[in-house]
Each structure stands twice: as C-alpha cells, then as structure tokens.
Amino acid sequence: MTPPTPRLFIIRHGAHNIIDIDIPLTVRGEEQIKSKAHILVGEGKPIDPQNLCVALVSPRQRAHRTFHLLFEHLPKVPDHIIDESVREWDYGKYEGLPQWDIWRDGCPGGESAQEMRDRVDCVIAKVREYHRQYFEEGKGTRDVLIIAHGHFNRVLISRWIKFELALGTRFNVEPGGVSVLSYNHSSLDEPALNALNLYADLK
C-alpha cells in the first residue's frame, strides 16, 4: 500500500517590529502563535508530532520562540534542529531598511539573489531526501517542519515548485501563517503548493 504523500510545513514566525535585526516577537506576535497552537499542533491535528520526521528552526530568536509557543501545550516539545541554512536572507547593508529590490539586486554586504537561491535549493534537497527515504524506503515519518522568515519562505515556495527565485515576490507570507508544500499524484517528481497562509491574521 502506498504511504501518505509526504509534506513540508513552513511557518513564518509571529509579528515583530523590524525587518531582520534579531529581536523578539511582539506581544501581538506571541498571541498570533498561541491562538493557533491548539488547533494546529497535536495528535490528529495538521501538525502531529508523531508524523514529524524533522523540524528545522532558524536561529533567530523570534523563530525559535515561535516553535516553542506552538508546542508548549504538549507534554513534550519535539526534538528540533537550530539550522543556519533556514535563517532569513542576509540583508547586509540593507538590514533594517524598509524597501529595496531584493529580488533583483540581492543585498550588498549580505547575500546576492544567486547565493540565496543556492542556499534555499540546498534546504529543498535536504527535505526531499527525508521525503524520499520515507516514501520509497519506509524510513522515518511523513512530515518536515521549517520555522523561518518572510523572504526565506517566499523563496522556498518559488524554488519548491521549480520557479525562479524572483517569483517569490508574488507570494505574501503573513506573520504566523502556515504554508504546506507537497507533491501531485503521489509523485516526488511533481512538487506542488498545497496551501498558503493557513491560520494567518489576514487583516
């Protein structure tokens, strides 16, 4: 019998005040996550710890706090990996500034668009290997979870469905929103976007 199709859940941290300086969630950001934790995470819920093969969490404190808020109502917080490869785009000289064409110019003193694409592609390759082992060899479990950031998640969605990085500008990834990436026709050769901004505060 064919196992359930593997999935990648990507969650953007809750609201904060400045682009990428490593600051905590705001009170509103904490409430965004707490309000959805009980309906999103738990046995039989969309994110069931029993189905989690691995959880990758950005080292930025707002992402790490988001992870713990999601799981703190459970008897045990799942194991997770603090992974630099899922950190936010390195904004370099633009860190803290509101606007520039990151999709075209990248970030002087930080990561170019090509460097960001390469990093995200490596993350995708890692996730797909977890999925392959589960789907083809019966190793591990179905789901991967990534807790990360706005630009990172937008690039990840674009690259997952085999589009250029710049398509990410067409996806709005809201604070606290959940996106689901998986595959069509139970084929690992057909990556697909299943959902975008589930449980987000769309105001």
From TrEMBL:
Residue runs in coiled coils? none
GO MF annotation, one? sedoheptulose-bisphosphatase activity
Q: A Pfam family this protein belongs to?
A: His_Phos_1
On the tree of life, the source organism's domain of life is: Eukaryota
One Gene Ontology BP term is: ribose phosphate biosynthetic process
Q: State the Gene3D superfamilies in the record.
A: Phosphoglycerate mutase-like (3.40.50.1240)
InterPro entries named among the record's database cross-references = His_Pase_superF_clade-1, His_PPase_superfam, PGM_Phosphatase
Known PANTHER family for this protein? BROAD-SPECIFICITY PHOSPHATASE YOR283W-RELATED, SEDOHEPTULOSE 1,7-BISPHOSPHATASE
Name of the protein in question? Histidine phosphatase superfamily
Q: Which organism is it from?
A: Suillus subaureus
